[in-house]
Amino acid sequence: MLARIADVYGHRFEFSEQQVGGAAIDATGDPLPADTVASCREADAVLLGAVGGPKWSDPEAKVRPEQGLLRLRAELGVFANLRPVRVNPHVAAASPLKPELVRNVDLIVVRELTGGIYFGEKSRTADAASDLCTYTTGEVERILHVAAALAAKRRSKLCSVDKANVLETSRLWRQVTDRLIPEQYPAIELETLLVDAAAMHLLSRPADFDVIVTENMFGDILTDEASMLAGSLGLLPSASLGHSRCGLYEPIHGSAPDIAGKGIANPCGTIASAAMLLRHSLELENEATAIEVAIDQVLAAGKRTADIADGGSDVTGTADFAQAVVAQIN
Length: 330
Ligand code: IPM
Ligand code: MG
Description:
Blueprint: H1 2-9, H2 22-28, H3 34-42, E1 45-47, H4 65-76, E2 80-86, H5 99-102, E3 106-112, E4 122-125, E5 128-131, H6 137-153, E6 157-162, H7 168-184, E7 189-194, H8 195-204, E8 211-214, H9 216-230, E9 239-241, E10 247-249, H10 268-280, H11 285-300, E11 303-304, E12 314-315, H12 318-327
Parallel strand pairs: 1-10, 3-8, 6-7, 6-8, 11-12
Antiparallel strand pairs: 2-3, 2-9, 4-5, 9-10
Bound molecules: 3-isopropylmalic acid (IPM) and magnesium ion.
């Protein structure tokens, strides 16, 4: 895909492939080898394949593929994870929800990615376990700035999701939000929701949302839920951004071990992540849009991977679908 973009638009991209996750554990014992970190740091952008799988999922294992991904996010300082959910009208029928409910959905979740319970101290004894959740004012402020700036370029609606009726970190989150947004972004319409209610509102009135901002774990859970609005987890891309230009781009889905090697996975999430990479790290907006339009065109023509197939569609495999998208770029 990126090679085709380079050809058609006259760019030259240099690619370097590095290991992370299970493959890296097998090769080196470390899910994020130093060479991988060094190479990512040198790059303008990182496109990541999903990590994880049954081979490395022993609950007693000290080393897991997911640690590689979490460490890479932390190493690159990519604290803002953008997960857009747009419903393609041609695949609205693939959603388990009523087409009239999902038709106008166009939202983006801004998930805090390098703090909270994912990164707090963990401990385990024979019969007890603990995961610590911490947020600082600075961490909340910087993600709010990303979300508010994004909302200002869209429909100027920002929904902050927390659990302020129970969690101290959420009370801090809400306090910072209620101060910072009206003060610094007076034109933004701010709504705050508790995460349980947000999970419900995402299904009852999904088209109302514009930008949703939330902490790490709530964002993880809500974006898997939100993917069902679009029809499949396989459709959604993500961009993880920090203060530097180098971003990390990955589909929101996991490694789908149940279909591994069958050639039937939906490549849209990864291809659309490459589009986000062009937009956010390389400032190639036209090229990014061209990829997004190409995906829409292939879907509009009725081509589908199995996860979004319906009665009348032309069901195809991963490589064939991806080729069809590439062929649209000319
Ligand atoms: C995601 C994934 C990861 C996360 C896993 C693989 C660690 O679920 O990117 O949403 O929880 O962040
Ligand atoms: Mg997830």
